[in-house]
Design goal:
The complex is a heterodimer of chains A (114) and B (112).
Chain A: E1 5-7, E2 10-13, E3 19-24, E4 31-38, E5 42-50, E6 53-57, E7 64-68, E8 74-78, E9 87-94, E10 104-105, E11 109-113
Parallel strand pairs in A: 2-11
Antiparallel strand pairs in A: 1-3, 3-8, 4-5, 4-9, 5-6, 7-8, 9-10, 9-11
Chain B: E1 4-7, E2 10-14, E3 19-25, E4 30-38, E5 45-51, E6 56-59, E7 62-67, E8 72-77, E9 86-94, E10 101-102, E11 106-111
Parallel strand pairs in B: 2-11
Antiparallel strand pairs in B: 1-3, 3-8, 4-5, 4-9, 6-7, 7-8, 9-10, 9-11
Chain lengths: 114, 112
């Protein structure tokens, strides 16, 4: 089975712009979670989608949003980019949304905001 | 909310030695504890996990122990090899939200 794929792998944007990141989960996986990874804060949970609905949300401002399509692919959007949004954005998929389900991570999208 | 603390933040060992990384969690409802290895430029890769109905799990050179009473779990790597060098993250999930809460990571260096 192919793993989790994320596109693009690298992005450079300027402050004030918006960006959309894409995630394709492992085939058959229905739950997709997004995480932000920075050197200072580590790995922080952004949100989780299951059956096209946001089921869970972390402590991030409303500039961060996402959606999930009927084929389980997910996108996340960040509007009005700030310098502090520079980070590695990771997507993880799991079969269902049981708390004991293993989450498999993609390679991430490295976002740099100038 | 749930909090996961991980120690040490850096660990340097000689090839062939053992490495131990420890984590504590705060939410007694947590019921799943994965460990991930992250190499430079890559996403976290699951190396082993343990569920709350098990006290210990082993996979070749890697083992994880869980003490639910004390709310801590540990990763043990025996006979370390240079390719074990990476950043290791513990995580806990469960409770009211169910999402993964990660520790801050341990940078393991294995010297040949």
């Amino acid at each position: 089975k192919a793993g989790v794929t994320q596109t693009p792998r690298y992005l450079i944007k300027t402050r004030g712009q918006q960006v959309t990141l894409s995630c394709s989960p492992i085939s058959g996986h229905r739950s997709v979670s997004w995480y932000q990874q920075t050197p200072g804060q580590g790995l922080q949970f952004l949100f989780e989608y299951f059956s096209e609905t946001q089921r869970n949300k972390g402590n991030f401002p409303g500039r961060f949003s996402g959606r999930q399509f009927s084929n389980s692919r997910s996108e996340m959007n960040v509007s009005t980019l700030e310098l502090g949004d520079s980070a590695l954005y990771l997507c993880a998929s799991s079969p269902q949304r049981e708390s004991t389900d293993t989450q498999y991570f993609g390679p991430g999208t490295r976002l740099t905001v100038l | 909310g749930e909090n996961v603390e991980q120690h040490p933040s850096t660990l340097s060992v000689q090839e062939g030695d053992s490495a131990v990384i420890k984590c504590t969690y705060s939410d007694s409802a947590s019921n799943y504890f994965p460990w991930y290895k992250q190499e430079l430029g890559k996403g976290p890769q699951l190396i082993i996990d343990i569920r709350s109905n098990v006290g210990e799990k082993k996979d070749q050179r890697i083992a994880v122990t869980l003490n639910k009473t004390a709310k801590h779990f540990s990763l043990h790597i025996t006979e370390t090899q240079p390719e074990d060098s990476a950043v290791y993250f513990c995580a806990a999930t469960g409770g009211s939200q169910g999402n993964l809460i990660f520790g801050k990571g341990t940078k393991l260096s294995v010297k040949p």
